[in-house]
Amino acid sequence: MNLIDTVQKLITFKTITGNENEITNCLNYIKDKAQSFNANVNIYHFENASPIIMAANTIEHNFDVLVLGHIDVVPAPDDMFIPNIKDGKIFGRGTLDMKSFVAVALNSLYHVIKTKLNIKFGFIFSTDEETGSKSTKAFLEKFPNLNAKIVLDNDVGGDITKIVTRCKNPVFIKIISKGKSVHGSTPWDGIDANENLLKVWQKIRNIYPYYSSNGINPTNKWIDTVHFAKIKGGEVSNVIAENAEALLDFRLTETSSVENLCSNLNNCMEEGTHYEIVSASTAVVMDENNKYIQAYKEYAQNVLNKSIDFEYIGGATDSREFAQKGAIVIMHSGTGDGMHAKDEYVEVRSIEQLSKIQIGFLEKLAKY
Fold this sequence. Notes:
Layout: H1 3-11, H2 20-36, E1 40-44, E2 52-56, E3 62-70, E4 84-86, E5 89-91, H3 95-114, E6 121-126, H4 134-142, E7 147-153, E8 162-167, E9 169-178, H5 193-207, E10 225-233, E11 243-252, H6 258-266, E12 273-279, E13 284-285, H7 291-304, E14 309-313, H8 320-323, E15 328-331, E16 336-337, E17 345-347, H9 348-366
Parallel strand pairs: 3-6, 3-7, 7-15, 8-14
Antiparallel strand pairs: 1-2, 2-6, 4-5, 5-17, 8-13, 9-11, 9-12, 10-11, 16-17
Helix pairs in contact: 1-3, 3-9, 7-9
């Protein structure tokens, strides 16, 4: 299997979340590719979620190693779906997030089957990760006993010399404010929903400070944060707003809890306001001294011929679903930049190195 050719082919599919035709075409490409080397492949469809593809060298659902990922991407101009290799980098939508590493997993499965490696190995790719991963949740509800001893999560793109051992818990909260609309010239006769929403927001900011590149930039970034993701209030300029709402994106460390967040929010509400939890999960925290993580790190350092550090990130990961089941999650990917931006790229050499690391690690595990 030609790894880089496969990466480039995957990029050509315009798998923007919700683009059903292109997602179907991409899934079928992966299915055909995996079946060509005799993998067991299934595409699962759900009533209220997008499809998932699973491929493996086994029909069992208790894996030794499972790779998690997704094929959907954020919107981009058409020319970003034409891969461009320049100066040792592949440019295009999804190169870093994360079709290059979908190709890596395909190549690993090819190697496992071709060499008849004594290990139960497979991959699962979702198709709506960029909008909340409802497909992953639906898949795990369908197969509640599916599990893996080790999960390789390549959806933490950026630096092949870093292994991520902690991810924060993303919690999305909607603040809803109800007021009384009157003409803007007589505000004393009404109740401004916008005004009350801003009062709530200021109280929240007193608990969770505002950080920015041109303001406070904390030395310790492993802290709880929140940003104002969306805000909507009012209909016309000369009428006091009767309704307002805001979507807040909290990122909580493992020492925090949703319960504590709710307690804080309860103390921030004004009359006529309330909040709803849109979604919440758990933080992913791995033991850096775990023997499998250490073995992976040691092999990766040998391949790269340089040291690898552990790091923490604020982003979320679908591997949290397996971490809650007790799986050992190893979060590692290739080197690139521009995720979700117009200049997204991944270094070709890092794709090849990651593939070598993944295959070598699987060979080591098969000997245990």
